[in-house]
Amino acid sequence: MIPFSILDLAPVAEGFSVADSLKMSVKMAQTAEQLGYARFWLAEHHGMAGVASSATSVVLAHLGAHTKEIRLGAGGVMLPNHSPLVIAEQFGTLAELYPNRIDLGLGRAPGTDMMTARALRRNMDANVDSYPDDVRELQGYLSDQEKGIRAVPGWGTNVPIWMLGSSLYSAQVAAQFGLPYSFASHFAPDQLHQALTIYRRHFKAAEEGDQPHAMAGVMAVVADTDEEAQYLFTSALQQFVNLRRDRNRPFPRPVDSMEGIWSASEKHMVEHMLQYAVVGSKATVAFQLERFIEATGIDELIISMPIHDADARLKSLHLMAEVREGLVGEVREEMVGEGD
């Protein structure tokens, strides 16, 4: 069975503080490590009342100090917001602190609104075509090649770079560079299959033996019953409605019903965006995941768990690990049966 990883936004839940959010991310990372998840990634977003992971490298350093083995990384850093040299120094520092545990996922969206993007001192006039050049520059700083400018720390760390995206463009760049690729199907489902096809078909190995490695994201809420999971998932539904209405609010508490909260058009939009979400009991989620993995042929699954209650989020993490073990058990039984 493929590896399962976790994407965390350090959600700031309604009624709780940023400090509470960051403490919960530590608990999630520690629990994910104990349960055998492959990676624990944080995403860069700015100016959002419900997200505490804007200073991504800082939070990763904190998580590294509280974990031992699990890979930590950015899912991702929005490279147009930053100088490639600064990112090389930040993630080079992380790689020196936590050897062989750091991943660097890169995206090209601002991860915020345009006003906040300007406040980040991002070059708003830059041509989007400069993104591949920035990636190459960053790769150079992390390599052991002499480029005239040396990232210290960073030089020679060769931090693994992933290309992230929700479009065909990111798939093309990942294939051209021969890098692992993660598609954001957890909120942008439309081009998932086409992007994976382009990535695999046009992959150019950077080094001999390199193979395409595709990861895809899903939102997941696993609970004892389908009804409880659907109730917990209403927090995510409300958050997407808030985003559509340009309401900047903490991550909402769940509600008994979405009726009266969203309009018919909002319901259609949100359900379409979240069509790959897996929500329900272990049996329900296992069925949904089997279909998703079979349909995509992905090499790895990365999961976000948009749950307001901290205990319910940790329980979902445990139950998802049990789902994975169940899928592994089924694969083993199939292999034994084929050998009989």
From TrEMBL:
What domain of life?
Answer: Bacteria
GO CC terms of this entry = cytosol
- Return the Pfam families for the record: Bac_luciferase (PF00296)
A GO term for molecular function: oxidoreductase activity, acting on paired donors, with incorporation or reduction of molecular oxygen
Which InterPro entries does UniProt cross-reference here?
Answer: Bact_Lucif_Oxidored (IPR050766), CmoO-like (IPR019949), Luciferase-like_dom (IPR011251), Luciferase-like_sf (IPR036661)
Q: Which SUPFAM superfamilies match?
A: Bacterial luciferase-like (SSF51679)
Give every Luciferase-like domain span: 11-299
The family annotation for this protein states: To bacterial alkanal monooxygenase alpha and beta chains.
Q: Which PANTHER family match?
A: LUCIFERASE-LIKE MONOOXYGENASE
Write the protein's name: Luciferase-like monooxygenase
Source organism per entry reads Marinomonas posidonica (strain CECT 7376 / NCIMB 14433 / IVIA-Po-181)
